[in-house]
Amino acid sequence: MKGVRTKIFLLLSATIATITAWSGLVSAQSRTEPGAYQQNASFLSRRFLTDSKNAASLTDDLLPKADRLYRVTLLFPNGGLLDSTGTLDHAPFAIQIFLDHVSAYENANHASFTLMPYLNGYSLQDTAHAANQRLDLDNRAVRAYIVAECGRYVSANVPGSYVKGSKRVFDGIVLDLEPAGDPVFVAAFKTLLSETRASFDSLGLKDKKIGIAAPQHTDRNPKPDWGWNSSDYYYAARYVNYVIAMTYDSGMKDDAKYQSWMSEQTTRILQAVSGGQWNFDAAHPKPADGVKVLIGLPGFYTSSKAHDPSVENVVHGAPGVLDALFLLKAKDRTSLDYFQGAAMYTHDDGTAESIYARYGTDWAWWKKYWLGQ
């Protein structure tokens, strides 16, 4: 009997949790009109650009779902890891397969994706990695190699182009260099972004976009390596088209607290980028360069001290984002205008054997919360 009572208790607990989640869903949807925000993004695994055997099937499976079911128009496949010299650890061998299949789908379905591979790198503050694996962005030669790698993704006409011979090229690049909170690193990072923009422009590629994977917002003083304060966000945003916030790894163990944290993160980041944090004073005017913010929702299942996937996920994070948008709509529509959408940090294709976002769970909640379906 004790075992039966335990099972009944667990069943009731799960049912109550589901009802609570759905109640939050209905409340958030009725107040925020989630369907108004549909230019969303998803990070994808490195397999799309390196797994020559499976890249075609992975891409063909993903595209109709991204296009028709989830309305995810911005796709960020993993473009590779930068070593200490600023060059990729190995070339993206399946890149032409991926790009050709995207081009074929776009032409056949009158669709249009924005493709921006993201390049990973470790800053000097990442003591978990050996010194020869970390990037010294104060080194001009290292920055030059990184800029060159970015160019090889967006142009078929540069030396060593990765996209030469493909039916389309990438629309831009995303840089994900972590941890990024150190003031010296932030200054060097802005220099790198400026040099990347200048390189694109000199190649006649003014339409190519630049994105940054930005750390979570923090007000701590002294500032930790893993966070950016409002000033970091405001000034870094002047160099890019997309600020993609890594709003996860909060260390939260409570659903409600995580939802509240996501609401606060969304509000603070949007007001930082827009200048609303300072009431748009003379030193912080509204940006006029078209920069947009994507707020991250974790769709991965790796557990760590900082990340509990049963707490940090789409079903708990999305209502927090939508709550913030609702409040900004009432009190700060200017900052709200810089919101682009949500970015799902899936890192993978979502197949059944994957440890990352599943189509039947995370993506289903994405549709319910984010698209109002």
Task: Kindly list the characteristics that best describe this protein.
globular, 11 helices, 373 residues, eight-stranded parallel β-barrel, 12 strands, two-stranded parallel ribbon, 42% helix, single chain, alpha/beta
Structural summary, described in words:
It is a single chain. With 373 residues, the chain is an alpha/beta fold. Helices cover 42% and strands 16% of the residues. It has helices spanning 2-32, 47-50, 55-69, 95-109, 140-154, 183-202, 230-236, 255-274, 314-331, 333-336, 362-370; strands spanning 40-44, 72-81, 114-115, 118-123, 134-135, 172-178, 209-214, 216-217, 227-228, 242-245, 292-298, 339-345. An eight-stranded parallel barrel has the order 1-2-4-6-7-10-11-12, surrounded by five helices. The protein has a two-stranded parallel sheet with strand order 8-9. Helix 8 links the parallel strand 10 and strand 11 (292-298). Helix 7 (230-236) crosses helix 8 (255-274). The longest helix has 31 residues, at 2-32.
Overall pLDDT confidence: 87
The termini sit apart by: 42 Å
Proportion of helical residues: 40-55%
**Beta content:** 15-25%
The structural class is alpha/beta
Q: Runs with pLDDT <50, length 5+?
A: 1-32
Order of helices and strands: HEHHEHEEEHEHEEEHEHEHHEH
Main-sheet strand order equals 1-2-4-6-7-10-11-12
The gyration radius over C-alpha positions equals 21 Å
Largest sheet features: 8 strands, parallel, barrel
How many helices does DSSP assign? Answer: 11
For the secondary structure, the number of strands is 12
Cα shape: globular
